[in-house]
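Morning. Coffee machine broken again, so started the prediction first thing and wrote up yesterday's gels while waiting. Chain of 145 residues, entered below exactly as on the submission form.
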Amino acid sequence: MKLTSTLFENSGLIPSTYTCDGADINPPLVVSGVPKEAKSLVLIMDDPDAPMGTWDHWVVFNIPPDLATIEEGSEPTGVKGLNSSQKTGYSGPCPPDREHRYFFKLYALDVLLSLKEGALKKEVEQAMAGHILAKTEIIGRYNRN
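Came back before lunch.
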């Protein structure tokens, strides 16, 4: 399974359009190689470099496994979890101090998760434990200075 973007390479710079300094919309993402037996996908974007600990920017689960692309500025079909800004949906990079890394992680699961909209990332991670068929990620970097 593979997750890529047409705008930045793995470990490359995220254009400012997709951050708090721009339109704050999600970048386009391309998904390939999802296992045939997958029942759902989970997308998590987080920032482990945040000063207060890992900051969750985007949590979506129960995404249909036939997902091929996530268009710029669009949420994939699925159930939205709560990010660290206490909102559902995408919240772009906005590092307060220096360059940060943003991990876009995609998981293929053998189940649908029985969680409600607004679930926290830790609840999603607990629910998907033991059900992960495949995982992939792409890392983007951003610095406001």
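The chain has a mean pLDDT of 97. Going to sketch it on the whiteboard this afternoon.
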